[in-house]
Design a protein that fits this description.
By secondary structure, the protein is an alpha/beta fold. The protein folds into two domains: 3-118 and 153-254, Vaccinia Virus protein VP39 (Rossmann fold), CATH 3.40.50.150; 275-475, no CATH class. Helices cover 31% and strands 20% of the residues. The chain has helices at 3-8, 16-29, 45-53, 67-79, 98-103, 120-125, 143-147, 154-165, 179-191, 206-210, 257-263, 284-287, 318-322, 345-348, 350-358, 360-364, 428-438, 441-448, 461-464, 469-475; strands at residues 35-38, 59-64, 86-90, 109-113, 171-178, 199-205, 215-222, 230-234, 244-249, 252-254, 275-277, 288-293, 296-298, 304-306, 312-316, 329-332, 390-395, 404-406, 415-416, 420-425. The strands form three sheets. The chain has a ten-stranded mixed β-sheet with strand order 3-2-1-4-5-7-6-8-9-10, sandwiched between helices. Strands 14-13-12-16-15-19 form a six-stranded mixed β-sheet. Strand 12 (288-293) and strand 13 (296-298) form a beta hairpin. The radius of gyration is 27 Å and the shape is elongated. The N and C termini lie far apart (59 Å). Bound molecules: S-adenosylmethionine.
Length: 494
């Protein structure tokens, strides 16, 4: 199978030992099933292992789009004299009549497997339509598709369908998937008030079993008359006790229920402080430079350039912020607000203008559509706040809650790239007090109740701004109130 085909069909066959381990776990924790269904069975690791783990299963069915896989499974079952009681067929998940299949099965039903690991945007790049019909690529061309908002995992859609299958039946769903997929499936089911027991997620190491790096789990959902909205997370497949309970509370997806209960009164409120993300330019080779002497700077292409200091600012990336807080580079910030005309640079900073013009091929080629029809050398995430003297900042991609006070460096304000979130402030005292309160036990507990540390960007602006800082200051007895910071006069560039 070519690599593209493997991607298109999310084809990572489950090793037998993992399928066996999963079946053992299910035997220990759930009621014995009487029938089994494997909707995307591949060569059938789960089907075979489940038949040998659960002797009460009298019949079952397994399907896959790939006819060669179906032949392999049929052969193996036939050798074991198990073919006659089981239906093994080629089928497309998206066009199969699942209701009639499910209604022919004896309860309790075990729905087991490992649905394809592929997203609709990967399918878009491969021009594949291995998607639910109503999501086909032609309908995904809008703004949502451009911004990635409409991106979803195919397995997310499939597992959500399976939850519907057991709404009026007794059964268990056990699916391998990414932890982010499991959370999205559960959030949607909880919001739709689906009937289910408390779900479980058992984390496993996808590197060991599939040679891929993805946070992965076994998601188990058991049918119920109740509508539980919680999921217990186990560190590994053999763990006896959960180490975390996530759930739906007040329509929020909560990462730690006890922390949420303790601090939920601090949600939202009127926002006095504004969280921001650093500058986005998508061209670090040109826009980020190291200083070699007074006016000379070396860029990411290894070229030494003489540039005016006026538009160069000490840069802290998230990694600098997490390790030492010393700017290692300077960033060219050619605008003070989004969309500002940059043609004045030719007069105000001719060397910088010449440098940027020389590299305009790279800058004009920036892939993101946000740069389209914008002034030359445009950047994003820029405003008065970029030039404030004091900032309280936190790296967005690091798995640690640690807020730092950042002041000027070499007499210039420090700027951040888009791996940093921050609040801009006018004075040091306010910045220190704010950092103290954000690093307090209560704020940490509050943020812990919402952070999923395995997310690509665990610390988002949306998360940060959900904390009512004013309320927290009041609770801690801090009665100082600073006026809303005005940063516009810090640095006049033009
Ligand atoms: C991650 S593999 C897992 C296979 C098997 N469940 C296992 O655990 O080893 C995903 C399987 O989904 C199948 N598949 C992909 N798209 C499908 C579709 N639209 N309908 C049915 N099967 C599909 C692939 O052929 C592949 O065998």
């Amino acid at each position: 199978m070519t690599n593209n085909k493997k991607i298109e069909y999310g084809d990572f066959q489950t090793p037998r030992e993992l399928a066996r381990e999963v079946c053992r776990l299910l035997k220990k924790n759930t009621t014995e099933p009487k029938s089994i269904i494997e909707p995307t069975c591949g060569i059938g690791a789960f089907f075979i292992e489940a038949l040998s783990t659960f002797p009460n299963i009298k019949s079952g069915c397994a399907f896959d789009l790939n006819n060669e896989y179906i032949d392999v499974l049929k052969n193996e079952l036939s050798k074991k004299r198990l073919l006659q009681n089981n239906k093994i067929e080629v089928a497309d998940f998206f066009s199969k009549d699942w209701q009639s299949e499910i209604s022919s099965l004896t309860e309790p039903i075990l729905v087991i497997g490992n649905p394809p690991w592929v997203t609709n945007s990967q399918l878009g790049q491969l021009q594949s339509d291995n998607l639910p019909t109503k999501y086909n690529q032609k309908k995904m061309k809008g703004l949502d598709a451009l911004t990635g908002k409409s991106n979803f995992d195919i397995s997310e859609w499939m597992i959500s369908q399976m939850i519907d299958w057991i709404q009026e039946k007794r059964g268990v769903i056990a699916m391998l998937c990414k932890t982010s997929v499991a959370r999205k499936v559960l959030l949607s089911a909880w919001q739709k008030n689906k009937k289910m027991e408390i779900a479980t997620m058992h984390i496993f190491d996808s590197k060991t079993y599939f040679n891929i790096s993805a946070d992965s789990c076994l998601l188990t959902v058991v049918s119920s008359k109740n509508r539980h909205k919680e999921c217990k997370i186990y560190d590994h497949l053999w763990a006896d006790n959960p180490n975390q309970t996530i759930g739906l509370r007040d329509n929020f997806l909560v990462a730690d229920i006890p922390s949420y209960e303790e601090t939920k009164h601090l949600i939202d409120g009127e926002q006095h402080y504004q969280w921001r993300t650093g500058v986005k330019h998508d061209c670090s080779k040109i826009m980020e430079l190291e200083q070699v002497s007074e006016n000379q700077y070396i860029n990411g292409l290894g070229e030494i350039n003489e540039l005016e200091n006026k538009y160069l600012f000490p840069l802290l990336k998230g990694s600098n912020l997490a390790n030492g807080k010393i700017p290692s580079k300077f960033m060219i910030v050619p605008q003070t607000r989004i969309g500002q005309d940059t043609s004045h640079l030719e007069i105000t900073a001719p060397k910088t203008w010449q440098y940027l013009t020389k590299h305009s091929d790279l800058l004009d080629r920036r892939a993101s559509s946000i740069y389209k029809d914008k002034p030359k050398f445009s950047i994003f995430g820029v405003g008065d706040y970029t030039f404030s003297k004091w900032k309280v900042a936190i790296p967005a991609l690091y798995k640690k809650l640690d807020f730092s006070v950042i002041g000027p460096y070499q007499n210039k304000v420090v700027v951040f790239d888009d791996t940093v979130n921050f609040i801009a402030l006018d004075n040091e005292k306010e910045a220190c007090e704010l950092a103290d309160i954000l690093n307090s036990k209560k704020a940490t507990t509050f943020y812990h109740s919402f952070i999923f540390w395995d997310s690509k960007r665990p610390i988002t602006v949306q998360l940060l701004k959900s904390l009512d800082i004013d309320e927290l200051l009041t609770e801690s007895g801090n009665t100082n109130r600073y006026s809303i910071s005005k940063h516009s006069k810090q640095l006049q560039l033009i």
